[in-house]
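Hi R.,

Here's the chain you asked about this morning:
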Amino acid sequence: MMFGITVLPEWAQAEGIERVLDNLQAAGATAIATSPYVMEPAEEGTGSREPPADGGAGKVRLLDRPLWGKRDLWVRTAPSFEPNRALYEGLAYQPPEPDDLTARDGHIVADFIAAAKRRGMTVHLQVQSVIPPGYRVQFGGPREEDQPLGPDDRPVPGRVDLNASLAAPQILAYAQALARDLAETYPQIDALRIDWPEVPPYAFDAIFFDFSAHAIVVAETMSIDGERMRRDTMALHALLTTGLTDDYLAKIVAEPSAEHWLERLQTALPGVADLFAVKRRMSVELLETWRAALPKEIALIAQAFPPPFTDLSGFDFAAASSVVSEIGVKLYTMHWPMMLRNWGDAMGDNAVDTAALAKALVAITDTGDAPADLSALIYPEPDAPHPATEAAIVRKIETARAATGRDYPIAAFSHGYGPVDDVARRARAAFEAADGRMWMNRYGYLSDEKLAALGAIVKGR
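And the predicted structure, written out as tokens:
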């Protein structure tokens, strides 16, 4: 059994290290994950909102544990350490400069790690795989020339993620430098955990990434016809935005799984199969870059979208399992209806029944029971249960385990956002499906009541 909770540094700062660790261990946690930055409150409208707004849809979110006395607030961050500048010499991307916040509170991350290790806990450090500087998901991003592009050679503005092209050489070089820097700075960690080593399909148009110059180079090394890949990808975009019919949607829903629809699609449009293959290659080579930069005693862990979203994101469970020590399947179920609504709205020029479209989207992604209409696919309010069913959660874990082998460590990454009973419902399904290997994201959404409910699940195993 392994039960971990992601605790970002601001909680160690605000509540105190020992109090946080006491709460975690009372809930049965055996592991923590944190990140290499520190935080402080900022004036409203400056810095960023905590909790994150998730591209605007998540503005309904509130923290369960007040942070510096508030359930939502504006914050600023700073690195928790002084980077080794020599590692980044000559690179396009550079680490942020430490400042007075670093000087005052930066030591708390190292202290937090050391305190957890003294208690016998496993410690992961989480960073972003291709969002320099990588310390925290809401900050940073790539240069214009490293942006992923659609088949029309355009980026997609306003994405939830700020991922660069997975194949951008300067992004890969920065990843190597950051991995070495963190390993030198925090040698006590058991694992470095990287987020989004894939092409996140939050936005509809991001499904059709990546046609950047970097991705085209990868396609060429694979002897893939770039023009066919572009032509067929644009044909898919046209089908989904203007070519759908109610009959077509009914056939999708009739399939027993999304794989059948995707398989038929790739047969009809082989350039789309090429695009998916390029995404998989880029993802694996990104993982190999991070792994090569770490000392062998620090494990590399990837956290990724759940199947079948990974068919679109390019995360390859089978290939990744030969590179990383563990894979976390992210069951962040409040995002699922938000994503499907974004996709459905992008398909609004189709003359189809919106209820049928919503039903097809849920069927393709296997995210739960069909909603009454597209309008029902919304980011849930803090007190609203998530529409994901236990059966859908279980199938996603089982699919990942089938792809990697039953003995490979697949961890379920459940989320603490939502009402207590619903958080416990989703966590129980995830914990049991993953054979007692689960992480909860994040401590800020875990009230004492939720921690007690989680403790009852993990201690009852």
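The radius of gyration is 21 Å.

Let me know if you need anything else.
M.
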